[in-house]
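Reopening this one. Same input as before:
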Amino acid sequence: MLIQWNPDKVNTSGPKKSVDFKRDLQIARKTATDEPDNEEISQAVTNFHHRLDDLAQEINETLEDLKFESEDLYAQEIDDETLR
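Same output, byte for byte:
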């Protein structure tokens, strides 16, 4: 059974973003393998890779923000204990 994939229906928001994105990437890769001369699919796979890089950057930035916030909270907690 050939799965029909539509690059215009890729979900890029919401709580299911990661699962949907991975599913759509797998379908695009499979379609690119089945249709190696289809430039639209090849471009879609390339776009997925760029989007994965962007998502990884977003995740790293969020983790770094959380790190600094937790360090600030920890320092504040120590200061509060010192004042007691």
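So the earlier flakiness isn't reproducible anymore. For the record, DSSP finds two helices and no strands in the chain.
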